[in-house]
Amino acid sequence: MKQAASTVSLFGLEDFARNFVRDINHHQDVRTEHLAEAFRECFGLPAFPSLADLWGLCRRLGVEVGALPAGAGGLLAVNVWHDSQGPSILMEQELSTKRAETTLGHELREVLENTFRRVKPSYIGLDTRDSKEMDPESDCFAGCLLMQGQASRDRLHELGYDVASFAGETGRSLPSVILRAQQLHPAGGSESSLVAGMWLFEAPWGRVRDGSSTAGDLKLRYRAHLSGFSMDKSGSASSKLAHSVFPGRSAAAGDSRFALQCLVERRPVVASVGGFDLFGQHDYLVAAEPFFAVGVPWRVLMTAVRRDCEHLVAPYIRRLGVRMEARTYQSV
Amino acid sequence: MANRQLSPLAQMLRRLRRERGLSLRQVQEQTGNAVSNVYLSQLETGKRGDPNPRILVALAMVYGVPSRLLFEKAGYVAGPGASAVEVAFQQVLADPTFQFGTRFHGDLDEESKRVIIELYERATRKKLLTDKRDETGS
Predict the structure, then answer these.
(1) Nearest to A108 by CA among A133, A91, A84, A132
(2) B79 within a domain of the structure (yes/no)
(3) CB-CB: which of A74, A84, A130 is closest to B105?
(4) Which of A3, A115, A270, B51 sits most deeply, having the most CB atoms within 10 A of its CB?
């Protein structure tokens, strides 16, 4: 932490923004990871800031944080800023802590975007009012801010890419960790990177809370393809096999033999899946881990790791503590 | 492309510019480069659609017409009979002194827009909705 902010006004925010966009004229030149890092360093946020950290920072920066009025429709949060006042962020009162952290990070990015425009009128920014344009960037920033890049990369590596344990340790939500893992492991990364697919099936929380959720309610909600993992190899036999073994975009847990098995047996399943190529170089280790709440199925996390990266996930497989089953599929 | 094949917005944008004797580049300059001449040309010829409301606000200011007119032509708001909330929300969008951003489930529905309008009213002390319950009057 290079510098802890002690200002109790908007000047801290405007000074930061002025400095950050000094040589930037267009939002396309803003690198989100870099912005989040600069913001963290400038205002002394830890690698994995808590809701209290973010809330306290907003107070120091003069960004008012409050609750949305009741009957706000589908709004989770809104940030507003009129010339006559400072910025403010209003959030739905019922948000869980994890959701509130992500939401506050998301809203802070939009406040920052508006600050850039205010301190540098020639800056061509994103339109914060246009969700299609702004939200992907705001979500990305929230992920970067809540899970510092290098610290996350290091800890994920130590944990064998056990994203559930990482989420538990850092207090982040499992979906946000999966999305962050994707950001941190882009295609074309280093040769020693983990090549893997991750899929999270999830039942609607209402069904879980009511105790009525069944395997059929778990749909694929989040996925990450790490370090160039791909199911598409130009219609090759291995691609067809991958599509038959790994979940597609609109898959349900019931469509995956591994996800279904772990729910039925109520325990993790680890299997070696072969048949992708003659020499087994592109075979996969597949793990499926069920999560139950109120005694009913809530989530299934499925991970497929290319066999030449298997050593990287050894701590995760050890934590699951199950015997590996070998399965070989026919190339289609 | 014949005019009859162009969208109402494309026709309106071309007509407004020609009536004012402005070139595409002059419009770009007058919007402070918020709208590039290439993009405007594409809008006028129907090669691009669904412009960002901020683009329409910038063009409306250059052409000296109400933003609402361009919003209507773009199909972003209904013509006469649009709900009071929708009309008020477009006014909020058109005010460059008020910035906002949202996070929501699904589409920005009428209740969400009403919250934003009320926050705008509080900040600006302007009254856009005459009666908070008189929202959907057409």
Answers:
(1) A91
(2) no
(3) A74
(4) A115
- In this predicted complex, what is the ipTM? 0.79
CATH code at B44? 1.10.260.40
pLDDT tens for each residue of A14-40: 999 999 999 999 999 999 999 999 999
Structure confidence at residue B131 (pLDDT) = 57
**Pick from A73, A117, A129: CB nearest B100:** A129
B129 belongs to a structural domain: no
Our CA-based measurement puts residue B24 at a distance from the nearest CA of chain A, in whole angstroms, of 20
> CA of B120, closest CA in chain A: separation in Å?
8
Structural domain total, chain B? 2
pLDDT tens per residue across span B5-63: 678 888 889 888 988 889 999 999 998 888 999 999 999 998 888 888 888 888 988 88
Q: Do A107 and B101 touch (CB under 8 A)?
A: yes
- DSSP β-ladder status, A196-202 and A64-67: unpaired
Dihedral of the alpha carbons of B75, B76, B80, B82, in degrees to the nearest 10:
140
Does any domain span residue B137? no
How big is the A-B interface in CB pairs under 8 Å?
A: 107
Higher pLDDT residue, A244 or A135?
A: A135
**Contact B124/A at CB under 8 A:** yes
Domains and CATH numbers, chain A: 11-146 (1.10.10.2910), 185-328 (3.30.450.20)
Is B91 part of a structural domain of the chain? yes
Domain range for B92: 84-124
Q: Which two tokens stand for residue A129?
A: 């009012």
Whole-structure pTM value: 0.76
The answer on B99 and B70 residing in a single domain is no
